[in-house]
């Protein structure tokens, strides 16, 4: 970028959030400025951003950014939920895990039931979300492996879940930094002190490898909020990566 500096401006002081979501839905903005141009803008307060960014001479030519992937951490005892926009359609996604059974809910309706998690602690299935087909991947080894071989899901640590939709599969998740990295490190150290070995690190977890391999050949196997965006006209796809933590 030669000698030009990249500047980032943001304002979340009035941001409004969806229920059970850390993602703002209105009254916020993020603006990235390079060479006195607004190269990327997110939010709905463009006028406010331009008044603050006095150095910006003009808007760069770009279309609305497309969210490619999102990584999120959710907490609970047996039930975990979040909201996601799948190719323009907003839905509430829920995961219930108890008594050796995994249930996936979409807008409160059960879409998938996986029994005998002691043997099926990793896998993937296709579910319907409205008119969309969504690939769902799960890895609950940490829960099953820490349940003392009882066949339940009483172990600690986190479960990993991936929802993928669209033609352009394969999520790209930024490196964990800041509070997110500290969370993973603190929990990993806590589990290690108890003699519990966690499933592989997020970057090489089996469920993420399956998501990449299955999306490349269209096959299926059955045995972190961070996000990535791009600015182009392709509808592409979307991947949601969930880390579900059992509350202390």
Please describe what this structure looks like:
- The protein is elongated and about 60 Å long.
- The longest helix is centred in the C-terminal third of the chain and has 16 residues, at 178-193.
- Helices cover 16% and strands 43% of the residues.
- Strands 12-13-14-16-7-15 form a 6-stranded mixed β-sheet.
- Among the domains are: 1-65, no CATH class; 66-173, Beta Barrel (Lipocalin).
- By secondary structure, the protein is α+β, with helices and mostly antiparallel strands.
- The chain contains 4 helices and 16 strands.
- A hairpin with a 6-residue loop joins strand 2 and strand 3.
- Residues 214-234 are annotated as: Disordered.
- Residues 216-234 have a biased composition (Low complexity).
- InterPro entries: DUF868_pln.
Short description:
By secondary structure, this protein is of the alpha+beta class. It has helices spanning 46-52, 141-145, 178-193, 206-217, and strands at 6-11, 16-17, 24-26, 29-34, 37-43, 58-59, 66-76, 79-86, 89-98, 101-106, 109-114, 122-129, 132-139, 158-166, 226-230, 237-246. Among the domains are: 1-65, no CATH class; 66-173, Lipocalin (Beta Barrel), CATH 2.40.128.
Topology:
Elements: E1 6-11, E2 16-17, E3 24-26, E4 29-34, E5 37-43, H1 46-52, E6 58-59, E7 66-76, E8 79-86, E9 89-98, E10 101-106, E11 109-114, E12 122-129, E13 132-139, H2 141-145, E14 158-166, H3 178-193, H4 206-217, E15 226-230, E16 237-246
Parallel strand pairs: 5-6, 7-16
Antiparallel strand pairs: 1-4, 2-3, 4-5, 7-15, 8-9, 9-10, 10-11, 12-13, 13-14, 14-16
């Amino acid at each position: 970028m030669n000698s030009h500096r990249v500047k980032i401006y943001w304002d979340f002081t009035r941001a409004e959030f969806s229920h059970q979501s850390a993602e703002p839905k209105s009254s916020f903005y993020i603006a990235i400025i390079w060479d006195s141009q607004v190269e990327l803008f997110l939010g709905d307060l463009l006028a406010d951003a331009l008044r603050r960014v006095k150095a910006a001479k003009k808007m760069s030519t770009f279309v609305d950014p497309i969210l490619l992937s999102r990584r999120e951490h959710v907490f609970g005892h047996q039930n975990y939920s979040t909201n996601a926009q799948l190719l323009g359609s907003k839905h509430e996604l829920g995961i219930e895990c108890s008594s050796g059974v995994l249930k996936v809910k979409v807008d409160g309706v059960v879409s998938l039931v996986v029994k005998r998690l002691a043997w099926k602690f990793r896998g993937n299935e296709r579910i319907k979300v409205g008119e969309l087909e969504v690939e769902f991947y799960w890895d609950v080894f940490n829960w099953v492996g820490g349940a003392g071989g009882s066949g339940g899901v009483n172990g600690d640590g986190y479960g990993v879940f991936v929802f993928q939709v669209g033609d352009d599969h394969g999520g790209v998740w930024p490196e964990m930094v800041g509070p997110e990295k500290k969370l993973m490190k603190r929990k990993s150290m806590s589990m290690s002190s108890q003699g519990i070995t966690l499933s592989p690190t997020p970057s090489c977890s089996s469920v993420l490898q399956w998501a990449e391999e299955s999306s490349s050949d269209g096959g299926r196997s059955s045995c972190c909020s961070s996000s990535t965006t791009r600015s182009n006209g392709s509808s592409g796809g979307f991947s949601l990566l969930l880390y579900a933590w059992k509350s202390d």
